[in-house]
Amino acid sequence: MRCFTVLGPSQTGKSTVVEKLGSLEGAPRKSSSPYGLNLTEFTFGNEAWCALDAPGPNEALAHAQHALLASDACILCVSSAPEEAVLAAPYLRVIAASETPCILFVNRMDEPRGRLRDVIAALQDYASHTLLLRQIPIREGDRVIGSCDLISERAWRYREGQTSALIAIPESAAEREHEARSELLEQLSEFDDWLLEELIEDREPPSDALYAISSRILRENRIIPVLIGAASHGNGMMRLMKALRHEAPPVGVLRQRLAGAGNVNENKLTAVTFHAYHRQNVGKTVLVRALGEGLRQGASLGGSNLGAVQHLANGKSNSAVVPAPGDVFATVKSDHLPVPSLLTSGAVVAPPEWTEPPTPMLERILVPGSERDENKLSETLAKLSETDRGLTVLQEESTGAHLVCVQGPVHLRDLCRTLSDVFHIDVTDRAPSPIYRETIAKPSEVHYRHRKQTGGAGQFADVKLSIRPNERGRGFTFGETVKGGVVPRNYIPAVEAGAREAMEKGPLGFKVIDVGVTLYDGQHHAVDSSEHAFRTASKMGVRQALSEGAAVLMQPVFRSEIHIPSIYSGSLVQIVSALKGQVLGFDRDETAKGWDIFRALIPGGALDDLARALRSATQGIGYFSKTFDHFEELYGKEADAIVRAHEEPGVAH
Predict the structure, then answer these.
(1) pLDDT tens-digit profile of 429-447?
(2) Could you give the CA distance from residue 495 to residue 463 in angstroms, rounded to a whole number?
(3) Is the whole model's pTM more than 0.85, yes or no?
(4) Measured between alpha carbons, how far is 248 from 326 in angstroms, rounded to an integer?
């Protein structure tokens, strides 16, 4: 079986392309996962094929990445409008990182929305490989009625619902065809010395030789050929499928590529997992592509026995099935297989770094509808994070509530639907509380005496403490300068412990940071003094001093790396400024053509707004990662509003 992924932005007709390709020579067999990955098995040219139709939303990019891990080649569907080329940028980036041979298909050519050369030029801004135009459109006025193959120099007229008709190249297209073919030959000659010599000698190379060169350099992943058509009318589908059949590499090339990326012995690499999901009454289903011999139910894979092997289309298990190299199959009761992963019979090998999904930008607290679902939700989220690497599951620091980090609102909606439909857990979501702190603006001193007599042994401790602001980031410090044994040495750790306890909640209601406490004098009683008494005296004394130290609210500030296509860079300074952030600088992204990386400091309370503004400004393409940098003072009405909100019942920070 040969396997390819069809990917690209939403509304580019990917699913229609897969449907038409699968129906060229018979009836395809289709299966779907809850995450939107559709698998279509079909036969073409007496060979078995499997098409992986990756979900279109940019928030589901991780599933497209994982599909590439199991694919011999891929088809990138793009719009015929030049201004929409940027929407393909994330996919071109992933394809380049994965080193998957790619054919670019400009779909919906029946909708005149711009010149093809402008589409290619716009896409080339984001493609690290040369985009090699293999066909040009034949037009009647503004309408595309056919195409001309630049290698064979044959022209076809599209016919609705039928195979295209072979025609002579129209005079109106002859000049453009000659120009485009010359460009094609020139670009191909960069990868073949024989062809370069033929062109220098002004000899016309035969079509068979050109097809062979084109096939070789696609298999070597050195160019991206560009084909055109309109899948909804069936136009260009046969040519696209023939290009896949003759030019896409076999499964052995994928095995070699993955072995090199994972530093695995190629002869031991047996399979690759690329997708998983949970089904009611079934459990975890893992999708696997066989790369070697010897796989069957009960065989050793990834260090344990392979569970039941199932057909993709009908989900039926058959212990007699022996997947051959290249076959794609499903397995259940194989929970030991992580996704994605490279597998030998005895070990699981981590996938290449390029399979890492973008950092989740949206954080939400999930609240179960009933208390009895609390533990069930925790276990279920852990399961889902195993099958969806775009999801990160944490706990909110202040409350311990379930905190999920998702790619965006669409991803969040799909997660909540899965929890409800598959696991019968209904949840609501809310934004997490930003983590605020407080400190003091001026030093103070306090003399506190703790005395308590209740019959029998009493409690006595007397401390004199100096409290001062520390420099930012130093945290809490404690010191002592007592002399003459006024506070015995064995009680000093209790004084420090009491001071630390006082830092848990300051006058504004938040944890206190960046404060130094020094014990400089005190008294004790030979009978009534104890560690408990000195801890209590220190705690109460420090609390009193904090209330006199001009408390200041502190907000978290995060260092953010914002990844966006270069055409959107001009809008980012305004976005960061509007969020009261600070731009630190930007550079070209050396790993992705046409992308920039902005570095900025963003207040923690503005990260949600940054995610929304970034999605809006970049059509959902831009994303950011964040790391905590420091706390900084926050004053005025904004600070007052935060303190008032924190004082309300049920609000946790």
Answers:
(1) 998 877 899 999 999 999 9
(2) 8
(3) yes
(4) 13
